[in-house]
Each structure stands twice: as structure tokens, then as C-alpha cells.
Design a protein that fits this description.
Elements lengths: L52 E5 L4 H12 L3 E6 L4 H13 L4 E5 L5 H15 L4 E4 L15 H22 L8 E5 L12 H21 L5 E7 L7 H5 L2 H5 L14 H11 L10 E4 L7
Helix pairs in contact: 1-2, 1-8, 3-4, 4-5
This protein binds nicotinamide-adenine-dinucleotide and magnesium ion.
Protein name: SDR family oxidoreductase
Keywords: Oxidoreductase
Pfam families: adh_short_C2 (PF13561)
Length: about 300
């Protein structure tokens, strides 16, 4: 897609129906049909993050991959975290970052583990030579028809991934962040408009909004900004790997005024803006991209 032209956004990217495409959790971007656009060919940088150092969780695929590619093209060095099972997706991202002549750091591991979260930050800081952008983006979303279907193990896994890890990683990063640093958390439209089948997940996304607003007030005196992004439906492996019933994967995004899901690259510039000094007056904010529904 040539970015110097204007397009009708409703027809810019694939529209449903899509094929059913069940994948085992955590899912791979390289198995999706149609393939998501993370900006591999479309995102063009212009030096907006020159010399910055970023850690992105869930940077192998989906929204995190789009942020990783864009950050590298804007001149940042980037570390990504992901699960071991996602190595094939992660390799593609590492190669794309290196193709920009930037440092790319791959740190696989499970962020449900507190000790690993602290190691992750230390290792990213070591290998990047510092840290000034933290993107808490990894997430777990597994649909359940009823409240009664949510086991303690499910609840624990969702809260550990989406909330505990955000707390642990941000705590570990804080001593390294200095004036001008930016923390960006991936929330969701479900924080404001939860569907029936994502009860535990939606709870965590509402909490991420709240964490963002509290922390923003707490660290403003240190010159650190904290914001969140609240996406609507985006075409990522989160959805076919248990995030939605397959019937809903087939018509994913159809209920949006734009009639289609977002593609990860359509959020790339939001993550760039929030990381860069250009958004210096924005902290404690939540940025939406929901295909015309007006949330948050
Ligand atoms: P994705 O599957 O591409 O990314 C999620 C990533 O989370 C995975 O790649 C994986 O690396 C990571 N992850 C999950 N559990 C982990 C664990 N225990 N340890 C380490 N890493 C783990 O899907 P995505 O949609 O790009 O998701 C990114 C964020 O966007 C998530 O927080 C998700 O909740 C949020 N979000 C997605 C949508 C959507 O429609 N796709 C909408 C709103 C919010
Ligand atoms: Mg992934």
C-alpha cells in the first residue's frame, strides 16, 4: 500500500467472511489467512525515535510486531519478548529490525513467572545498553461461554499474563527509565464495552486502563509518561487461537462501522506517537482505534 496516497479505509484491507482457521494457543501470524499486515512492506519511518531503546512484550506477532517494525524504522533499537513456541514468528521480526541496521534483541520466556519478568528487563537493558520505551503488550484471551466455565487455572493464567506481568515488568523497568521515557500498555475496547464471552479478559483490560491512569500520576514528576492503547478487533493470532469462537473469526470485524477488522500496521503510528517526544503533553490517556464505533 503506498502511504503517500489516500484510500477509503473501509476497503483498504480484507473484509469478512474469512475462513475458519483454528490454531493452538498461542497461535502464529505466519499461519493466518489472509496474512496480517504488520507494516513489513507498508510502514515507512522518518527518524521519529532515533537512538531510542525499546522493550516490547508480545513483539513476535500482531500489534506488538507492528510496533517493533515501526520502532526500528523510526531509528530505535528493539528487544522483543515472546513464548518459545513463537520462535518462527519472532525470527521474522528480528530479521526485519536488523534489516534497518538497528540492534534487535530476542528474549523468549513466559511472563507469568515473576523471576523471568525481572530477568527479561535486566537482559533487555544489558543488550540494548539502556531502556526508554516499555510496551506492555503481551496478552492472553481465551473465550468462555459462561462464567461457570472459567476455572481457577484459566483465571490465574489470564490475570498473570495481563496484569501481574505488567506490574512486575514495569516495576523492574522503573529504575532504568529516566526523563522522557514512555510506557505504553495495550488495553482494549473491551475495557469499556465487554462482550459476553470474554469476562476474565475484559476485567484485566479495564484494570490496565486504571493502572495506566494511576501510574501516569505517580511518575509524572520523574518526567515519565504512561499511556494506553485500546484497540477494537484486530486481525492477529490471538483471535483464532482461542480468543474467539471460530464462527466469530469468520465474520471478525463485521460488526464495526468499517465492516472489517483492523490490521496491526494501522496501530503502528499510534505506538510511535506515544513513544516519541511529539506526544509530550499526553500521559494517562487511552488511544482508541475501533473501526468507527467511537470507543473509548
Ligand atoms: P498476538 O497473539 O499477536 O500477541 C499476543 C502476544 O502475547 C503473543 O504473541 C505472545 O508472545 C504474548 N504472550 C501471551 N502469553 C504470554 C506469556 N505467558 N508469556 C509471554 N508472552 C505471552 O495478538 P495481539 O492481538 O497482537 O495481542 C497484543 C495485545 O493486543 C494483547 O494485549 C491483546 O489483549 C491486545 N488486543 C488485541 C485485540 C485484537 O483484536 N487482536 C484487541 C484489543 C486488544
Ligand atoms: Mg505471537
Amino acid at each position: 500500500m503506498e502511504s503517500d496516497r489516500f484510500f477509503d479505509p473501509t476497503s483498504q484491507y480484507p473484509r469478512p467472511p474469512f475462513s475458519a482457521q483454528p490454531q493452538e494457543w498461542p497461535g502464529l501470524a505466519n499461519k493466518m489467512d489472509p496474512p496480517p499486515d504488520h507494516g513489513e512492506k507498508s510502514y515507512r519511518g522518518s527518524g521519529r525515535l532515533t537512538g531510542r531503546k525499546a522493550l516490547i512484550t508480545g513483539g513476535d506477532s500482531g500489534i506488538g510486531r507492528a510496533a517493533a517494525i515501526a520502532y526500528a524504522r523510526e531509528g530505535a533499537d528493539v528487544a522483543i519478548n515472546y513464548l518459545q513456541a513463537e520462535e518462527s514468528d519472532a525470527r521474522e521480526v528480528i530479521e526485519l529490525i536488523e534489516a534497518e541496521g538497528r540492534t534487535a534483541v530476542a528474549i523468549p520466556g513466559d511472563i507469568r513467572d515473576e523471576a523471568f519478568c525481572r530477568e527479561l528487563v535486566d537482559s533487555a537493558v544489558d543488550q540494548l545498553g539502556g531502556l526508554d520505551i516499555l510496551v506492555n503488550n503481551a496478552g492472553r484471551q481465551q473465550w468462555k461461554a459462561s462464567l461457570l466455565d472459567i476455572t481457577t487455572e484459566d483465571f490465574d493464567a489470564t490475570l498473570k499474563t495481563n496484569l501481574y506481568a505488567m506490574l512486575w515488568i514495569t516495576q523492574a523497568a522503573m529504575p532504568y527509565l529516566s526523563e522522557g521515557a514512555s510506557i505504553i500498555n495495550t488495553a482494549s475496547v473491551v475495557a469499556y464495552d465487554p462482550p459476553e464471552v470474554l469476562l476474565d479478559y475484559s476485567m484485566t483490560k479495564a484494570a490496565i486502563v486504571n493502572f495506566t491512569k494511576s501510574l501516569a500520576k505517580q511518575v509524572v514528576d520523574q518526567g515519565i509518561r504512561v499511556n494506553a492503547v485500546a484497540p477494537g478487533p484486530f486481525w492477529t493470532p490471538l483471535q483464532p487461537s482461542g480468543g474467539q469462537p471460530q464462527e466469530h473469526v469468520k465474520n471478525f470485524g463485521e460488526d464495526r462501522p468499517m465492516g472489517r477488522p483492523g490490521q496491526p500496521v494501522e496501530l503502528a503510528s499510534v505506538y510511535v506517537l506515544l513513544a516519541s517526544q511529539e506526544s509530550s503533553y499526553s500521559s494517562g490517556q487511552v488511544y482508541g482505534a475501533t473501526g468507527g464505533k467511537g470507543h473509548p
